[in-house]
Amino acid sequence: MTKKAIVLVSGGVDSSTVLAYVEQQGYEICAISFNYGQKQIVEIKKIQEFIKNYKVKEHKIINIDLKNFGGSALTDDSIEVPNYQSASEVGNEIPPTYVPARNTIFLSYALALAEVKGISDIFLGVHATDYSNYPDCRPEYIKSFETMANLATAEGVKGNKINIHAPLINMTKTEIVAMGLKMGVDYSTTISCYNPTNEGDSCGKCLACLVRIKAFEENGVRDQIPYTKS
Question: Which residue spans within the chain are E strands per DSSP?
Answer without folding.
Answer: 4-8, 28-35, 56-63, 121-123, 163-165
